[in-house]
Design brief:
heterodimer, A: 336 residues, alpha/beta, three-stranded antiparallel sheet, B: 646 residues, 15 strands
């Protein structure tokens, strides 16, 4: 679509008529040449399937991973039973179908079958399925696999509308429901650690602005509407690892104990080395002493990235390094 | 059982044959009043654009500014060519296009019509869309001489200026400007190639070009095109004869009639009107209705004018030549004195071409058969077709009635039981069927054989004669058209009485055979007109209405002539003969032309030109379908005088 000859801005796709962000090009924004070079560079979108490759068959194969083994990994959906998948579909559709490429349609039942196959092959943990077409809500009732949260932009016999047009390209550049989804993401989800929930996203739609009534399906989700609405938006919309910072005294206490123990060990090591220098028969003891720091290291937990108490982390790290260095020198010294 | 038998008994009922004439008349009346009802709001619809891809008027148009200076320069150049020869002119035009950076070519053509030689040279240039796939093309036409034979200065200059603009407009984004091999910037949004055509003549030149584009030309008189693009998707022609100092116009007159009554897809018309009146604020008119208040009378008048234009089947502008090739085309003609100038028209064309550029397929969503009564109101074929069909059906009803009548035994065979003249009883026959016994007059059991040889031969012969006269009119020299038409009119007026007289002395056809002749002729007429209604609705309706008296002709009874006093009988006959002549094709053509202030000779010359150049078959319908039917009607009328009734 970006390379369609009718595109006034070849190779560029915009989602608003301000043309502030070229979605396809992370390096040059629309401002290039017009004095807006300092516009935020959001990075390009990765497109895996474009043009004639986008067919119903390819889409279903992608979801169910029914490809020959020679098929490149970069074009597959590589997921397993721990993956959360976001499926966002937009375009033209109708009563229980969605249009692909002006020449074919995918039916609600085909979609439901694809999701069921994904469930059987354990290809997802949970799916957020969002559809922005006319009568999008009619795609939802056919779904039958667990752990799917589904939302459609309009009910049966209701149309979904575009938001605004770019009068230089000559077409509408974004649809209303998508626009308000995007607005929520841009305004509310401000960082990669945002705790905004799906429920908050769905509640943010104003039918008077969207001009259609969103239809949502929570019943497939484990725990029903309550649990579904509590899921974070970033569980689906961002590829961000969930990290938990401890911060409670029990763990800190354990650290201190570990540090003390380590200190004692090192002292013992030093002592043992001195003794070994004096007493060759203490080699056994020194070996165990050399092993001890390594064994002690196993007890060390993976320290989180969040820095509430920076100095303890620094000391812990330094101690670990020192003990490693000592151990290494011990071992190399006694190798000869 | 009783019901069926009583219905079947009606077959022999003498009263049933009284019904068809009234039925025919009713059909004609309903057919005409159907038309009168169409302009009402309940039966007509607002126009709308059906194809979603068009998005009319959604794009900013930037034609203007320095393009205006370029346009003015081109217009002065074009004005300087007013008196040049054809070669010089096309050379200069090609030079200008070459300077813009387009590929140029030219084509010579010659048509020989009625001894006249119509020749010229078309020049055209092609803009290849830089990112297009070269499979489709759209055409922008500005004929050197427009339909009124005035030189089309501003339109030609506008086409050249738009060619330059479409090629070289610097884009809004630096990175999206493509650079051509000559280092200059270019505009790369075209998905189809654009051809800029400047034919010598509005109708002949364009026809030669389009025929040659589709390899449908006669290579000996029309040269082939050296340069072609892909399949044509649409064409827009401009008619703006303002001279070198310009002329601000008031409205755009949109001409959409094609050859043989074929119309472009309504989407193209609606897009042009939507862009011109919506985005640009230029009013649009159709069918030369310069002031239209959207009242009933004006809607009806527009519709009738449209029907006459469609019925004539003539080429109404440069766009008409594209229609037979299923290429939708319209002509935009500037009319009036107002404040819109060439920049408005240029921006209208730019926006229209951006909309055409959006198309992925041929225009197919909207109607191909419609009647427009206002730039914003139309009726589609489903609503208006019954009108012409009813008129055609009236002939078929009469034909069937005449057939049934021909199968009846002659009157003197015993159906009128003698009331007092003969004293005896009529002959009776006894019929036994199963257990039932009936007494039936013998006369009703008589089988009447129909003699088909003479009627068939006569009908076929007359139609063949009609085709011969059609051929003659197309090939006779223009100078002798007047005399040949006069001769033809006299001959066709004399043909019926002479033929009937000669036949009554030689072949001696009976009254039944004349009835069958009439029946076959009307049958053929009805079938032809109903088929024609699907091709050219207006022609079918007009011919049907003019020929409608033919279904009410009956042989003028000689008994009547003899029994009435001479002062009444002869004039009555003369009146019916005169009425019959008045509805003959020749008389109607003559009267119509007198009403519109043209001569019949011009009409015939145009018809010959139309057939030779555009393939217009309206004159074929007149001479090959209507005229033979009229001759048969006249023969039937005169047959009453000469045929002996037994």
């Amino acid at each position: 679509m970006a390379c369609n000859p009718r595109n006034t801005f070849p190779g560029a796709v915009f989602n608003s008529r301000e043309r502030s962000v070229d979605l396809y090009d992370g390096v040059f924004g629309a401002g290039d040449g017009l004095g807006l070079e300092d516009v935020q560079r959001n990075g390009g979108i990765e497109v895996d399937y474009r043009g004639n490759e986008v067919t119903v068959e390819t889409f279903i194969r992608l979801l169910t991973d029914r490809f020959p083994s020679s098929y490149p990994r970069s074009k597959r959906l590589v997921t397993d039973e721990r993956s959360n998948i976001l499926i966002y579909m937009t375009g033209h559709g109708g009563n229980e179908f969605l249009k692909f490429q002006d020449s074919e349609e995918i039916g609600a039942v085909d979609l439901a079958d694809a999701f069921e196959q994904m469930h059987e092959k354990r290809r997802y943990n949970s799916i957020l399925f969002l559809v922005d077409t006319c009568q999008a809500g009619t795609l939802l009732p056919s779904l039958r696999s667990p752990n799917i949260i589904a939302a459609g932009s309009s009910k049966k016999d209701q149309s979904s509308y575009s938001h605004h047009a770019d009068q230089d390209i000559g077409i509408a550049v974004i649809d209303r429901w998508t626009y308000y989804n995007l607005e929520f993401l841009e305004r509310e989800v401000t960082s990669t650690s945002s705790n905004k929930t799906i429920g908050q996203l769905f509640d943010s739609y104003d039918p008077l602005l969207v001009h259609s009534d969103t239809e949502v399906r929570y019943d497939l989700f484990e725990g029903g509407a309550q649990k579904a609405r509590e899921r974070r938006v970033l569980d689906f919309f961002g590829n961000v690892q969930a990290v938990e910072m401890g911060g409670d005294t029990e763990e800190e206490q354990q650290w201190r104990e570990d540090l003390v123990g380590l200190k004692r060990l090192i002292e013992r090591n030093m002592q043992a080395r001195e003794d070994a220098a004096l007493h060759p028969l203490l080699s056994e003891a020194t070996i165990t002493a050399a092993e001890a720091p390594l064994g002690l290291l196993k007890k060390f937990q993976v320290v989180s990235a969040k820095a509430t108490s920076g100095w303890s982390k620094g000391v812990g790290g330094a101690m670990a390094l020192v003990s490693l260095g000592v151990g290494w020198s011990m071992a190399s010294y006694f190798e000869y | 059982m009783a019901l069926i038998s009583s219905i079947l008994a009606l077959r022999r009922d003498p009263r049933i044959l009284k019904l068809p004439p009234y039925l025919s008349a009713l059909c004609i009346v309903i057919g005409v009043s159907w038309l009168l009802v169409l302009p009402l709001n309940q039966y007509s619809r607002q126009t709308y654009v059906s194809e979603n891809a068009i998005l009319p008027g959604q794009v900013h148009t930037y034609y203007g500014g320095s393009e205006h200076d370029v346009f003015r320069a081109y217009r002065h150049e074009v004005a300087a060519l007013a008196d040049s020869s054809v070669e010089e002119r096309s050379q200069k035009l090609n030079d200008i296009f070459r300077g813009i950076g387009l590929k140029v070519a030219q084509q010579d053509y010659t048509y020989i019509v009625g001894g006249r030689n119509i020749s010229g040279r078309n020049s055209y240039a092609m803009l290849q869309g830089p990112r297009a796939d070269a499979t489709e093309a759209i055409v922008l036409v500005a004929a050197w001489r427009n339909m009124d034979d005035a030189i089309n200065y501003s339109a030609v200059a506008l086409v050249m200026s738009l060619a330059r603009y479409f090629k070289r407009r610097p884009s809004l984004l630096a990175k999206s400007t493509c650079t051509f091999t000559d280092g200059k910037p270019g505009w790369s949004i075209w998905s189809k190639d654009i051809i800029f055509l400047i034919p010598s003549d509005s109708t002949a030149g364009t026809q030669a070009w389009v025929d040659a584009y589709h390899d449908n030309h006669d290579p000996s008189t029309i040269s082939s095109l050296p340069l072609k693009a892909g399949a044509l998707q649409g064409a827009v022609a401009l008619d703006y004869p303002a001279g070198p100092w310009g002329h601000r116009f008031d409205k755009l007159h949109v001409v959409y009639d094609g050859t043989n009554g074929q119309l472009p897809n309504l989407d193209l018309f609606n897009t042009a009107v939507s862009i011109a009146s919506g985005q640009m604020g230029i009013g649009c008119t159709i069918q030369r209705m310069w002031r239209h208040n959207d009242s009933y009378q004006e809607r009806l008048q527009t519709m009738l004018r449209g029907m006459i234009s469609q019925g004539l089947g003539h080429a109404s502008g440069p766009h008409s030549a594209f229609m037979p090739y299923h290429v939708d085309a319209i002509t935009l003609q500037t009319v009036g004195d107002g404040w819109h100038d060439e920049m408005s028209l240029g921006r209208t064309v730019e926006s229209l071409f951006r909309s055409l550029n959006n198309l992925l397929e041929h225009l197919h969503q909207s109607f191909f058969f419609y009647l427009l009564m206002h730039a914003n109101r139309f009726v589609s074929i489903g609503t208006y077709l019954p009108s012409a069909m009813l008129v055609a059906v009236s002939f078929s009803i009469t034909a069937i009635a005449l057939w049934v009548q021909s199968g009846r035994p002659p009157k003197s065979a015993g159906e009128d039981l003698p009331s007092g003249e003969k004293g005896g009883k009529p002959d009776m026959t006894v019929i036994k069927e199963g257990g039932a016994v009936a007494l039936v007059p013998t006369a009703t059991l008589e089988i009447v054989e129909r003699q088909l040889a003479f009627p068939l031969a006569a009908v076929l012969g007359l139609h063949f004669l009609g085709i011969v006269s059609f051929y003659t009119f197309n090939h006779v020299a223009q100078s002798s058209l007047q005399s040949s038409f006069f001769l033809f009119a006299v001959l066709s007026a004399l043909l019926p009485p002479l033929a009937t007289f000669i036949l009554s002395r030689t072949v001696r056809p009976s009254a039944q055979e004349y009835t069958l002749l009439h029946s076959f002729s009307l049958l053929l007429l009805g079938a032809s007109l109903s088929t024609l209604a699907t091709l050219n609705f207006s022609l079918s309706l007009l011919v049907g209405l003019c020929a409608s008296p033919l279904s009410f002709i009956r042989p003028f009874p000689r008994r009547l002539l003899a029994s009435l006093p001479p002062s009444l009988g002869a004039p009555l006959f003369v009146v019916s003969a005169v009425v019959l002549t008045a509805v003959s094709p020749m008389a109607i053509l003559g009267l119509a032309n007198a009403y519109w202030g043209r001569s019949v000779v011009d009409l015939l010359a145009d018809a010959a030109f139309g057939w030779t150049v555009w393939g217009m078959w309206t004159s074929f319908v007149i001479w090959g379908v209507w005229w033979p039917a009229w001759v048969v009607g006249a023969c039937v009328l005169w047959s009453g005088i000469f045929v002996e009734e037994k």
